[in-house]
Amino acid sequence: MSGVAPTGPATGSADPQLAPAVSTPSIGLLQRAVTVLAPLAGLGVVLLLAAVTTPGFYSSDVLRLVLFQAGLIGVTAVGQTLVLLVGGIDLSIGAVVGLTTVIVAGYTGGSDDRLLTAVLLALGAGALVGALNGVLVVRRQVPAFVATFATFVLVQGVITAWTRGAPSGNIPGGLSPLGTGRFLGLPLPAWVFLAVAVIAAVVLGRTGLGRRVYATGANARATALSGVRTGWIIAGCYVACALLAVLAGLINAGYIGYVDARLSRSLDLNSVAAAVIGGIALTGGRGRIGQTVVGVALLAVLLTWLRQLGAGPGVQLAVSGSVILLAVWLQKNGWTVRSPRRKKHGDGVR
Amino acid sequence: MKTYTGASRRRLRAPLALGVAAVLLSACGTEQEGSSAAGGAAEDCANADEAQAEYETAWTEAAEQLGLDKLEPTDERVCEVDTSEWAAEPKSGDSYRIAFAAQGPTNSWALTNEEAFKYRADELGVEVLYAAANGDATVQVDNIQQLASQDPDAMVVVPMGEGITGQVRAATEQGIPVILCAGRLGEDSGAVSTVTRQYELLGTMYAEWLVQQLGGKGQVAVLSGLAGVPTAEYQKAAALEVFESYPDIEVVTEQYTEWSPTVAKTVAANLVTQYPDLAGIWSDSGYGDLGVVQAYQEAGKPVPPMTGDAINAFLKAVQGTDVKFALSSFPPEQSMDCLDTAMSVLEGEPVLDKVYINSPSFTHEQIDEYVRPECTDNLFVPALLPDEELARLELC
Asked: Quick one: which of B290, B75, B324, B287 has its CA closest to B201?
């Protein structure tokens, strides 16, 4: 996945500061290596620390915990990556995850008979939230941070009003395997994440749609001038992100089997963290799904290790925040290189 | 009264983690409400013996209900307050207007808490001026100001944090008697009385029951709710104090479940792998216990004895299993007692400066008496509201 190099129409950089950096193949190669290796090195360091400090970390049970964590974070992180690639950010993921569980429990009443319809309803609701985000960002030019946060609050308000603040109900047993099942001994959520990541990587790296996503994120105006309907691209990424949040909600629901009113509050942060740690640029247009996968792996190992150490949520959040800061700092100092497509052409307009 | 300072005693076993985590820990350290219960206590403690006896009743009953050999009440001075200065006729109209600065219906506990208050108000023929804080102390500061500006006869406040102390004091200085409900503030709040279930009682009784189950020795995990939230931190501090008094009890880890079954399940899944000899789990949450039970069952391991609050979801989940537990509650319906206390104040009847609510405690052996299969997961049991009211709230 990570090796998939998007190719396509040149929208590269006219930035005088960037141009020299990519004009020398050896420097570009070095930066590219750093881009891939830095998160991997971080992962290696955490794994090493875990091995030294936490006996039994490499047991199959703990590995399964890591993979489950990776699966849950990963599905939302792929969605977040899509939004980040077009220069946005989605803070409504957690709300959509919560809404999904409420819809499934509320509509099915715990019965498998109505599960399919409930899933369709949840997907519809998710698409609606994503579309709302897209409309706010594209049509009304609302900053993504504000638009998606407002949507988050709105959805939370809807959930509270609908359930009178007391969401309850059982999740149908048919959904349980999605959260607790195993395939080849590994947690099913990890496989779901893998499938989602592969699909996203192929779409981004091998299709015209993917090239348009990168181009839109790199320079929406120039891309629009070249005939690409960038508004649809951006809105589509928000919708895709919301639909993946619905999938994460279904995994969560299957995992615990209840409506969890406090569910998913950290998923927004974790999805951003995983993408940024992997090297996805917050400024859009740069990064690959493979990097997100590495970021997810690093974050999942880190969180599991901290739990094994007995660290509370405060420490976990603080460490996650610190790692994000470190990742952003490294990005600013040349960790992340421009997309391969733009390096290849090196004549863009950014 | 005992004070608890700094409930953060998390221990990071790994030396390598200490360097980074110690700094982070200090940055993320939990803060607590004022260490003292409600204000209003006079210098001379009136009717001290009777008040003290009433305070200790809850402890005695809890010990009996859980079959505990001992349950020593924490040091607490409870006094009677002369409320004659607050006695008054309704300020406007024929009925009293009571302001209710509520949490806001952000969860089923708060929903029930508020509906119970309104239910009692209807019974008493009292007009309620309501404001919801949505769980936010900053919002509640505004709420109290606005409610006070309507010059109610009395005010009942479900405190969202220490930050509202100034507004509470301002309201009392404005001539409005304030009752703190289901929470507490420092003595400088000026509140006439605090009506709440005592956190220390819950934390202590759970810990003593667990110790008794384990025969006084073994590894224990402490699963608390939310870091820095008084409901969680006071209970946890009380429990840790108990565990410290038993040299053969080892608290191997302290974690937070955020009162979420999902988070608790993740935490417990780690416990299963890391502490195979774990003998007991002290928890303050029935919701959290749901996740713990699932984690152990999915791992094929026996569920250790555990504690928590009495939520119907947990009872329904473990009915018919061999899971051992002790539960009690922080009853949402205590708001009715808060209103009753406010009315007593307005009538000039003496009240206690700290009214500690009593509530049933029970173990797995009495599960059939308490579980409500016909009701929703969110019902706190035993429910004190009548069935028709529970049906109206869609809790049953």
From this structure: B75
**Residue with token string 């210098």:** B43
B10 touches chain A (CB under 8 A): yes
CB A57 within 8 A of CB A301: no
- Residue B364 near residue B209 (C-beta atoms within 8 A): no
Nearest to A213 by CA among A82, A22, A21: A82
The answer, yes or no, to whether residue B330 has pLDDT greater than 50, is yes
Query: A166–B108: do the CB atoms touch at under 8 Å?
Result: yes
Interchain pair B262, A307: CB under 8 A: no
- Residues 6 or more apart in contact with residue A179 via CB below 8 angstroms: A188, A189, A251, A252, A253, A254, A255, A256, A257
User: Cα separation of B173 and B336, whole Å?
Assistant: 25
Which residue in B289, B298, B226 sits closest to B256, CA to CA? B226
Q: Scan for tokens 């008040």, then name that residue.
A: B51
In this predicted structure, the answer to whether residue B71 has a pLDDT above a threshold of 50 is yes
Q: CA-to-CA distance for A142 and A59, rounded, in angstroms?
A: 48
The whole-angstrom separation of Cα B214 and Cα A173 is: 35
Determine if the peptide bond prior to B382 is cis (ω within 30°).
yes
Cα(B128)–Cα(B93) distance, rounded to whole angstroms? 13
Burial B273-290 (b: 16+ CB within 10 A, else e): bbbeebbbbbbbbbbbbb
What is the rounded CA–CA span in Å between residue A245 and residue A294?
20
Q: Indicate the helix (H) or strand (E) that contains B120.
A: helix B108-124
> What would the two tokens of residue B299 be?
């791992």
Name the percent of chain B lying above pLDDT 70: 89
**CB-CB neighbours of A134 under 10 Å:** 26
Q: A65 to chain B: which residues are within 8 Å by CB?
A: 266, 269-270, 273
Say if the ipTM goes beyond 0.90. no
Q: Would you say the pTM of this structure is higher than 0.90?
A: no
